[in-house]
Structure formats: C-alpha cells, structure tokens
Write a structure and sequence with these properties.
This protein is of the alpha/beta class. The chain has 12 helices and 13 strands. Helix 4 runs parallel beside helix 8 and helix 5 packs parallel to helix 6.
Amino acid sequence: MAEVEHQQLGASGLGPLGERPVLTVSELTQAVKETLELDARFQNILVRGEISNFKHHTSGHMYFTLKDEKSRLKCVMFRSHNARLRFRPEDGLKVIAGGRLGVYEVAGEYQLYVEELYPEGLGALHLAFEQLKAKLQAEGLFDPARKRPLPGLPRTVGIVTSPTGAAIRDMVSVLRRRFPNVNILLAPAIVQGDAGPPSVIRALELLNWRDDVDVIIVGRGGGSLEELWTFNDEGVARAIAASRIPVISAVGHETDFTIADFVADRRAPTPSAAAEIAVPERAKLLQDVRDQEERLRLAIQKRIRQLRESLGYLTRSTALTRPLDRIHQLRQVLDELVYRAEATFRHGLESRRRRLEALAGKLDGLSPLGTLARGYAICRVAATGQVVTRASQVRPGERLKVRLKEGELLCKALGAENGIDQPSLPME
C-alpha cells in the first residue's frame, strides 16, 4: 500500500487524530483493489446466480448482474472471453460464472470479471441449440411451405463433407450402386471445430455457383454433440436456407438432430440414407420402364381388338351393306312430316277463317252502315262535321248533311222541336 501522509488538526479542528492516516477516496479504492486482487480466495472463483440487466455492448463486452434472493453482484465479461460462448446470455437465465473479483476504480465498486460462463442445470451447447432453433423457427426457416421437392432424376449430386471421412466413402458407394451414371461432385469441407462453419458455408456457395448441380448432400458421420456442432452453427443454417439448389441434410446417426436438419429441404438419418434419397435405383427404373412398356403393349393390343370388332360390326351393318334402305326410310319419315305439317296448317287456317267470319258478323251488327240500312240516318253540321244528337245543337237556318244508306242529303234547319208531343214549328 502506498504511504499516506499523516495530518493532524489544530485546536480549531475536530480534535486530535493521533497517528491514524487520512486517505483520499482514490487511495482507499486502490487499497481495497490491491487487497482483493492479492487474496487468492477471490482470484479463481465460481459464482451461481441469475442474470439480470444484461447488455451486450457495441464494443463486444457483456455487462450484467448476478443476483440471488438476498444480494446482487455486478459482472463484466470482455469480448476476448465471451467470443467463445456457445449460448446467448439473457435475463432470467441461471448460470455459474467463473472468474476473479476486482474493483472498478472509477465507480468505486467491486465486480466479478467473468472468464467462463455456464448455464446451470443445462449444457451450454444444448442451450445454444435450443436458442438458435427457437430463433430460426420464429423466422420461418423451418416452414414446410418453403422447402422444395428433390429432383426425380438428378444428373449431378453435389456433396459437402470431409474428403477423408467414412461418410464420403459410404455415399459414393451407395450412389454408384443405385445409379452408376450419376455425376458426383465433392466440395471438400472441414466438418469439425472452429474452422468448420466457414468451410461448409464456402463449399455450399461453390456448388451454388455451378449450373450442373441438381441436388446437394451436406453432412458427416456420427460423433458427439461438440463434434457435430458445425451443423448447429447459425451461418451454416442460413447458407442451407439460402441455397438455390435443394439440400439434403445427413449429419450423424438416426438419433442425431441438428439445426441443419430442420432448415434443409430434406433430412436423412445417415449419409448413406441421404445417397439413397438423392438418386433412384437404376435397376428399378429400368424394370419400371419395362413394366410400362408391357402395359402399353397390352393396351395397344386390346385397343386394336376393339377397333377390329367395331369394324366387323360396321361391315355387317345395313348402313354399309344396303345404304339406300336408310335413305328410303328417312324419305318416308320426311313425307309423313310434310303431310302432318300441311294437315296442321290447313286445320289451323280453316279454324281461323271460321273465327274471322264470326267476328265479321259481330262487327257488321255493330257497324253504323247496318243501322243506316234499316232506315236510320246520321246528321252532321255541314260547317263543322259535328254529329247532331240533340236538337239544341242546331240553330235555325243552319246547313246540315244527312247521311243515308246510300248517299247524303244537304238540308237546312227550319227550326227545332224538343219533344215528339210539342207542336211543329212553322216552316218557311
């Protein structure tokens, strides 16, 4: 500890302090810092707690608080240490933090400098797997609707795997056995360790640049969760999802599941099974062709027999042996139709003639000419043509026209009588 200058207050002070040193805040903070950092008990410790107030700063450093029911402890995890984390810390996550205790002099606070961080009760890899799975599923990368069907008869199969592993030998063997004519294009990749993800991503990109690759198998043989972790990497998952060529994921054994399995267009339980899914069996295809050929031959023969039977029936039919018989029958039918049409027309015409005569008789009975024929006349004012129906319509001396059955009379009114019992007016 740095030496501290002794000071004593005079009579005007608070009283004598004896030999006790007076420290500045910085000196005291430095003393506490040195005490903590020199104490071996606080230099390699493990602390259990729940994360709160988590912040991942743009600098890459992580700041958070560990808490339990009674206390809180500030923590910092620098970028150089958190870059190796397999999971994403978040509020509410219970963890075990390993590191050393120290003092942040600017704030005068002690804090834990975290160098290791583990999820409590759950492996870091398993937690990272579940976190990434939930994230990509929420983005729709696992949606069956976005997955594409595999080609039925691929010309070239691209493979992303280690060129020295057993998986490539198994896949090539199965592909050659099932379809010897298929082209196999290997894009070598590192499938384990920190170099794995960028290597697999690069291999996928190389295959997608080609125009002759119809389907891609990406994967490796079995191993531990750590060994398979390349295929749980977010970058690899997004590269598979972005591939324009359909991808089959073939990682590990049947019980192994990776993020690549969920994102790929098809999952195979093993690399050998992926090869079986990628190409059809040539022998079976040839047998199917032969079966189809035989079914087609039988169908053609059956159709020929049917047509021959139809031709035989036609050659025996009267339509071909005596074609005029049908014409005569149709002519007879036509004659009958003409006769019926004429009879119907005559009957209708006669019925309408009788009705017309009846209506004419009724009309004649109502005609004014019939009335005139019985001795009646129609009188009209000569000047206006108005029909005279009352004596009051005519003035003495007014000229009248009287219509008879035959011809008209031109008359002059001498006067008017209003009734048959009144005496007649004198005539001029």
